[in-house]
Amino acid sequence: MQFDDDAQLDPSQVEDVRASGPQPGWGGMPGGCMLPIGGRGGCGGCLLFILAAAGLFLFGVIPSPFSGQGGGPQGGGQQPSAPAAPGATGNLAARCRTGADAEQSEDCRVVGTVNSIQSYWRQAFQERGRTYKPARTVLFSKAVNTGCGTADAAVGPFYCPVDRKVYLDLSFFNTLQRDFGAEGGPFAQAYVVAHEYGHHVQNLLGTMNRVGPNSRPGAGSPSVRLELQADCYAGVWAHNAVKTGFFREPFSQTDIDQALSAAAAVGDDSIQRRTQGRVTPDAFTHGTSRQRESWFTVGYDGGDPKRCDTFSGGI
Questions:
Q1: Are 291 and 298 in contact (CB under 8 A)?
Q2: Which of 96, 117, 115, 99 lies closest to 107 in space, CA to CA?
Q3: Does residue 55 have a pLDDT over 50?
Q4: Which of 26, 50, 89, 243 could join 143 in a cystine, given CB atoms 3.0 to 4.6 angstroms apart?
Q5: Helix axes 253-265, 222-240, angle to 10 degrees
Q6: Which of 65, 74, 62, 225 is nearest to 158 (CA)?
Q7: Hey, what long-range contacts does 130-136 have (CB within 8 A, 24 or more apart)?
């Protein structure tokens, strides 16, 4: 994964609120990828993708044992917190100007990755007669206040459809390697970011409405199909990334292997084996390791969002 040294980065697409730190009293029930229910906004209209009752977690949803207390997005009828304040982007603006900066800094690598992902989806929407509305990524540390409620790092990366932002604590990537056995590496990080932007695309297209208020987890559930489609969209971006002008050359097999390793590490079956010693398909919310690898590959091989119809037929 090599950025074009001369590529011009746009750090305004990333907010950095890490310096502000967590606010007193933040915390809540274990949760994860937050989706609107029935088109309503606010926390009362959010589905916490890994239901606390199911005791599960995943991408955008990290096992509560990581935090020791299971902090996460607030739910249970509580009112949503105010959205995160605009971040201190000045530091990123000073440090993250070109692709050469992205090669030297993890923060700037996130900026460059977000720029490339949104550049691709802007063009893809335009080709289909639609308008892509950008979403910012918020870099936070330990805890963050969002339009969907409050969340701590135990939740992992997630997308909030209420404020249309992706939230990312960079310590997640260490956790992914240390506790989940993922290979790690720059492209594993890129895959995670691209997956969350896949949720933004689903939000813009109205696909999230397929996960209704009465949706239940399970191997063929709408929540699983939504997550697998986000994996496929991540693969589609990877196929087209070099065309966005941010990368020097197409991704190598080593890069793709990093993404597949990350996808496998956060499969429902893999996480369940690690945390409870058995696999419970009725509690699946994101798909198996094999399914997550497979749908990323479908997107990467085809490079066409139309190939990502996870809602028709088997998965």
A1: no
A2: 96
A3: no
A4: 26
A5: 170
A6: 62
A7: 130/204, 132/204, 133/164, 133/204, 134/13, 135/159, 135/164, 135/165, 135/166, 135/197, 135/200, 136/13, 136/14, 136/15, 136/164, 136/165, 136/166
Which H/E stretch holds residue 155?
none
d(CA 95, CA 262): 28
- Is 70 exceeded by the pLDDT of residue 160? yes
Judged against a pLDDT cut of 70, whether residue 239 lies above it is answered with yes
Question: What is the maximum span of the chain, computed from C-alpha positions, in angstroms?
Answer: 50
CB-based contact 191:238 (threshold 8 Å): yes
pLDDT of residue 27: 38
pTM: 0.84
Beta strands in the chain (DSSP E): 14-16, 34-36, 46-48, 136-139, 143-146, 149-152, 158-160, 165-168
* Residue 38, helix vs strand vs coil: coil
Is residue 258 within 8 Å of 295, Cβ to Cβ? no
The residues near 196 (Cβ < 8 Å, ≥ 6 apart) are 60, 137, 157, 158, 159, 166, 168, 230
**Residue 62 buriedness (CB in 10 A; 0-12 / 13-18 / 19+):** buried
Question: Helix 186-205 crosses helix 172-180 at what angle (to 10 degrees)?
Answer: 110
Residues in the chain: 315
Sequence-separated (6 or more) residues with CB below 8 Å from residue 114 = 13, 14, 137, 166, 193, 197
With 0-12 CB in 10 A as exposed, 13-18 as middle and 19+ as buried, what is 200? Answer: buried
Specify whether the CB–CB gap between 201 and 121 falls below 8 A: yes
pLDDT digits (tens, 9 = 90+) for 100-138: 999 999 999 999 999 999 999 999 999 999 999 999 999
Partners of 154 in the beta sheet? none
* Cβ–Cβ under 8 Å, residues 158 and 172: no
